[in-house]
Amino acid sequence: MSLLPALVMLPLSAALASTLLPLRWRGPLGVALAVLLAGVACGLLRTVVGDGPQAHALGGWAPPLGIALVADGLAAGMVVLTATVALPCALHAALGLRGEAVEDGFWPLFWFMWAALNGIWLSADLFNLYVGLELLGLAAVGLVALKGSAGALAAAMRYLLAALLGSLAYLIGVALLYAAWGSLALADLAGFMAEAGVAQSGSLTTLVALGLMSAGLLLKTALFPLHGWLPPAHGGALPPVSALLSALVIKASLYILMRLWIMAGPALTPLALGWLLGALGAAAVFWGGWMALRQARLKHLVAYSTVAQIGYLFLFFPLFGVANMDAARLAWDGTLLMLAAHALAKAGMFLAAGNLVLAVGSPHIADLTGISRFRPLSLMSFGLAGVSLMGLPPSAGFTAKWLLLQSALASGQWVWIIVLVGGGLLSAAYVFRVFRHAFVEGPARDRFASPPLALELSALALGSASIALGLVAQAPLEWLRIGSPLATGVP
């Protein structure tokens, strides 16, 4: 029996059930179902590692009439990463939002978001990816708007406009590709383009289609300079929502872009285009880091940090597009490990930031004075996540940057080393700025709330995972290569 349908149907069923259940049951049921879904995700990864890529045609209808779900190593890894991040966020929400007015709307949107993410990871054709993107965008916008404040609604509206514009560009590109090739299956399109050669596959229709799809995905990923919607949306949302958005939601469009890049092949992805995306990524690293350093509010600092960390992931495109296969393998491994490291660290950092804001009763960094004596566990969680974002050993962030650095050396693209080192220094600057305030002794007045221990442990688990992943990175990287163009691994 295939596990693939359950990964989409379980969260969809949970979303519907959570609208019918009494409010007091939604949190406990949410945590229990998150544990169950995490078990299913691990089962899928075990199957892929043991038996190779998996496929399932829903309803017994094979493509192009039916919908196919496909899981290679990358898809299975993303499913597990989603569960790893979503489970602590579910626990944090179940306790942190209990009794709050926003709890009523959180759980259906949370489950729709999880279903959309799994659908995107497992989709094998471009239209189903569009459906997943739309559901994901609507759920994410709803989660941002949950607070109901003027700032939250304004941020949600900006997010909605960006999501709709990105989806429209992507959909037009999908229609043009179907008109040119008569199929939307990724495997079919890759085969057709390889057989047709540069002359036909590089037709104006195909180039315009891929350009529109890429532009829409870049907007959804919030790559500089298309990032304007992200800081208010991520910085103003509830802590578990911010964690999910930064760790997972923006990765979905990058995942699709990487799939498109591999599908199109070198004929349609010249190195110059890869360099353009890499340059935008480098600009994101420095601009996002600089803006994070200037923020007065803790969660906005973490949000601008996301803008910066996204930039590292776009170094994949110039490094992967070279003829040197060793450099391409290193770029593949480094980018995917960076993606996972950022997801774990940033989710932990947002949850820890939410705990600290709750403890001091203020969103401002300057008001963290003296917090180290009262909330050391939350501060430690923030620090562990910061270690990974800075790229210090033995974190997964360090291992990922080391692989990208080796790829840059192997391909002769030395300029990206400056980005990796400079971005790490900027990350250190804004993380240490938070600690500088936290370790200053302030007046011992009664202004510190005490978040439940489970809230602090949720953040600590994610921050610790971002460190632990760096110690055991070899096995996950081997799993992620299953079914990829680089399945032979790094020598």
Question: Which structural category do the helix and sheet elements fall into?
Answer: mainly alpha
Q: Would you list the SSEs in sequence order as H and E?
A: HHEEHHHHHHHHHHHHHHHHH
Mean pLDDT reading? 89
User: If you compute it from the alpha carbons, what radius of gyration comes out, rounded to the nearest whole angstrom?
Assistant: 22 Å
General description of the model:
The structure is a single chain. This protein is mainly alpha-helical and 491 residues long. The protein has 3 domains: 122 residues; 145 residues, no CATH class; 222 residues, no CATH class. It has 19 helices and 2 strands. The protein has a two-stranded antiparallel ribbon. Helix 7 packs across helix 10. The longest helix is centred in the C-terminal third of the chain and has 36 residues. The protein starts with a helix and ends in an 11-residue tail after the last helix.
What is the structure about, briefly put?
75% of the residues lie in helices and 2% in strands.
